[in-house]
From TrEMBL:
GO molecular-function terms, A-Z: racemase and epimerase activity
Protein name as catalogued: Protein YeeZ-like
Natural source organism: Gossypium hirsutum (Upland cotton)
Alphabetical keyword list: Isomerase, NAD
Cellular component terms per the entry's GO annotation: chloroplast
InterPro entries assigned: NAD(P)-bd_dom_sf
Record family assignment: Belongs to the NAD(P)-dependent epimerase/dehydratase family.
Designated gene of the protein: LOC107913647
Length: 322
């Protein structure tokens, strides 16, 4: 491919290498970091050198830390709301940079040093990818200029309920020290709130080929109890909820994202079987003693934000009755 040259902290695509029709979002100069270039092997090489000056950032520009499945949907929905904005994606590797570019997301590596700040920042990266989750959240918060919104896509796991009982935004969280997973999430959330950002605790994310149902279907037989209650939210709905929170420009708040239709593990897989949309056949759950779950309800979140999901239940998504 061609090269990208830096002029006064702006980068331009070589007209000889990429046509404006193939990448229309590069028609205007992109204010970002120095020393970006595409190698002939098509992998994006990013220098970790720091920038000395600040580039111009639009009032609706968005930084997505961890532009995976959820982050890409957030980008899509954000661009629908703000057609002229620039969207940036911070990643750990260059593995998916070409994909991100094709989606109109300007990628750069986490190690790239810059003093650039953005009006809107959303952190979508999972804790499994880093040894210092709270530290990564802090770095993301430092990339926020405080003008729009800073949102952290967290998990509903910290709610302290494991008896299949009711749970909402006001349910207490588990104490620090109970498990490494919830510790990482709660410490990360604490950093977000210290920066006056917002947290959205998401239930189990899914789409047709991703989520608990897909994993269990692949396994065939699962050593877990079938009566454990779990909660779901479609990836598209998680993205629309996140965008709604970003647009509200709220400060220091915690919201909950779920479809308000909790199901047992067995009910989930019964719906999968009933839908007839999957080739594989699930064999069953064999566990008897693992913990139970919780029944999430986010009516308060919906009322305050004026938000409703596109897919009100897993059954609705699959096109079957419960």
């Amino acid at each position: 491919m061609g090269t990208i040259s830096c002029v006064s902290n702006f980068i331009f695509l070589s007209k000889n290498s990429i046509s404006s029709s193939s990448l229309p979002f590069f028609k205007k100069p992109i204010p970002i970091f120095q020393s970006f270039n595409f190698s002939s092997s098509s992998s994006l090489q990013v220098s970790a050198s720091s920038t000395s000056g600040k580039a111009m950032v639009g009032e609706n520009d968005l930084l997505i830390v961890g532009p995976g499945v959820l982050g890409r949907l957030v980008a899509e929905k954000w661009r629908e709301e703000h057609p002229g904005c620039q969207i940036y994606g911070q990643t750990v590797t260059t593995d998916h940079h070409n994909e991100l570019i094709s989606l109109g997301i300007n990628p750069f590596l986490k190690e790239t040093k810059t003093d650039q700040k953005f009006p809107y920042v959303i952190f979508c990266a999972p804790p499994s990818k880093t040894p210092d989750y709270a530290g990564d959240i802090r770095l993301a918060a430092l990339s926020w200029n405080g003008e729009g919104s800073f949102v952290f896509a967290s998990s509903s796991a910290p709610y302290d309920c494991n008896d299949n009982g009711p749970c909402d935004e006001d349910t207490p969280t588990v104490p620090i020290g109970r498990s490494p997973r919830t510790d990482a999430l709660l410490k990360a959330e604490k950093v977000v709130l210290e920066f006056d950002g917002c947290v959205v605790r998401l239930a189990g994310l899914y789409k047709m080929d991703r989520g608990a149902h897909s994993y269990w279907l692949h396994k065939g037989t699962v050593d877990a109890r079938p009566d454990h209650i779990l909660n779901l939210i479609h990836y598209e709905d998680a993205a629309s909820l996140s965008v709604t929170i970003l647009k509200k420009k709220l400060r220091g708040r915690i919201f909950l994202g779920c479809d308000n239709h909790p199901l047992s593990r067995q009910e989930v897989m019964d719906l999968v079987d009933k839908s007839g949309k999957f080739d594989k056949k699930f064999q069953g759950f064999t566990g008897t003693s693992d913990p139970l779950g919780k029944k999430l309800n986010n009516s308060n979140t919906r009322k305050e934000l004026g938000w409703e999901p596109k897919y009100p239940s897993f059954a609705h998504f699959l096109g079957v009755s419960e």
